[in-house]
Design a protein that fits this description.
CATH topology of the largest domain: D-amino Acid Aminotransferase, Chain A, domain 2
Oligomer: single chain
CATH class of the largest domain: Alpha Beta
Distance between the termini: 18 Å
Order of helices and strands: EEEHEEEHHEEEHEEEEHEHEEEHE
Bound molecules: pyridoxal-5'-phosphate
Radius of gyration: 21 Å
């Protein structure tokens, strides 16, 4: 893909770095490419941020052919801007697209597109601690028709948002309260759970909203068959520390293969923690808690990196974890990964790509 670049003639006023929040501001430009069966992927360009101009009959609006990605560009302590493991996000979209009967651009082209957009909007990459430029690559069906079948036209676009700490108004990690959802499921076995399909999010909003109304921050998702095994927490992968061991459920077709999950499993091993990827039941969490062995629980994902869980609740029961405070494993992993992302520590694994 060759990219055309059209720069905006009306740049926006940049928001102050304090209080950026998450996903509230968008940069001056976006990336866009289109797909038809005749032309393949074509018309790849960086252009001013703006409307997509879709037909109301476009497939995305009716049958939900939509998926997205989320990755960050960081400004390092040396001033250089780097993308974190972008090839993982490109691969995830490329491998997820066939499950939704969609066409995705080639992986190398998608990585080039991430670079192209960040290059044009590089002044939007914030400088402060715990800030980044968040990229949202998105793939949607654009063909206008109503018969139920996979679309044959698609649009791939990327928007970018300067983001601050996920934990609004606080410098450090904050523990959240989590409701263990007994009835509704995010993704069943055989469903779309391993893809970043928008449909998974649509399925998750109702229980998350109910949990918020009841005073919780998010829900812990259980498996769709027996409602017994832990899958994910909110929109993050789920880790616990049992005794001295870091444990996370194994990947399956109902669990999203997180880049943060993979990175933190690697760092956990390197930091000397014992690591297990194995099924984790609510029953086991309860008995570990009774025995004083449930030392920590936390969610992991690109947006927050690590989100410690201070309390797990179900029915009338509550499991208080580490006195409701972030634990040392969560804090160590957070410190280690964010130091690598900001080039405060050497990137010995080839996880970072400088944007030039
Ligand atoms: C995006 C996402 C994650 C985290 O993936 P990362 O690549 O680490 O950001 C975890 N679970 C779900 C359901 C997600 O959508």
């Amino acid at each position: 893909m060759e990219f055309r670049v059209t720069r905006t003639t009306t740049p926006k006023k940049r928001p102050p770095e304090a209080g950026l929040g998450f996903g509230k501001h968008f940069t001056d430009h976006m990336f866009r490419a289109d797909y038809t069966q005749e032309q393949g992927w074509h018309d790849a360009r960086v252009l001013p941020y703006g409307d997509l101009g879709l037909d109301p009959a476009a497939g995305v609006f009716h049958y939900g052919q939509a998926m997205f990605e989320g990755l960050k560009a960081f400004r390092g302590v040396d001033g250089k801007v780097r993308l974190f493991r972008p090839e993982m996000n490109a691969r995830r979209m490329a491998t997820g697209a066939p499950r939704l009967c969609m066409e995705a651009p080639g992986e190398a082209d998608m990585v080039k597109a991430y670079h192209a957009l960040v290059r044009v909007d590089v002044d939007w990459v914030p400088r402060g601690p715990a800030t980044a430029l968040y990229l949202r690559p998105t793939l949607v069906a654009t063909e206008a028709f109503l018969g139920v079948r996979p679309a044959t036209r698609f649009c791939f676009f990327i928007i970018a948002s300067p983001v601050g700490s996920y934990f609004a108004g606080s410098a450090g990690l904050q523990a959240v309260k989590i409701w263990i959802e007994p009835t509704e499921v995010r993704a069943p076995r055989g469903g779309l759970g391993a893809t970043k399909a928008g449909a998974n999010y649509a399925a998750s909003l109702h229980a998350a909203m109910a949990a918020k109304k009841a005073g919780f921050d998010q829900v812990l998702w259980l498996d769709g068959k027996d409602h017994e095994f832990v899958e994910e927490v909110g929109t993050m992968n789920f880790f616990v520390v049992l005794g001295q061991t870091v444990v996370t459920p194994p990947l399956s077709d109902s669990i999203l293969p997180g880049v943060t999950r993979d990175s933190l499993l690697t760092l956990s091993r390197e930091l000397g923690y014992k690591v297990e990827e194995r099924p984790l039941s609510v029953k086991e969490l309860k008995s570990a808690h009774r025995a004083g062995n449930l030392k920590e629980a936390f969610g992991v994902g690109t947006a927050a990196v690590v989100s410690p869980v201070g309390e797990l609740a179900f029915g009338g029961e509550k499991l208080l974890i580490n006195d409701g405070k972030p634990g040392s494993v969560a804090q160590n992993l957070y410190a280690e990964l964010t130091a690598i992302q900001r080039a405060e520590k050497p990137d010995t694994r080839g996880w970072l790509q400088v944007v030039e």
